[in-house]
Design goal:
Blueprint: H1 2-10, H2 13-62
């Protein structure tokens, strides 16, 4: 019985699996945080671009076109 218990205490395969799981979880949290931040900035950029394009369209519609 003591041999079984001492062998159980020396077995570190479960600890290694847990460590790999924790590393994978930390990497995924970092990726999600980065993607969320970057995604928000990209969304703002496209929204600003759309606003500027709408302004340009409105400005070109209100100015008389030159006739040729």
């Amino acid at each position: 019985m003591t041999k079984l218990f001492s062998r159980f205490l020396k077995d570190e395969s479960g600890a290694t699996a847990i460590e790999y799981g924790l590393i994978a979880a930390l990497i995924s949290v970092a990726l999600i945080a980065g993607a969320t931040t970057l995604g928000g900035k990209i969304g703002d950029t496209f929204n600003n671009l759309g606003v500027q394009m709408d302004k340009a369209k409105t400005a070109s519609a209100t100015t008389p076109a030159t006739q040729q």
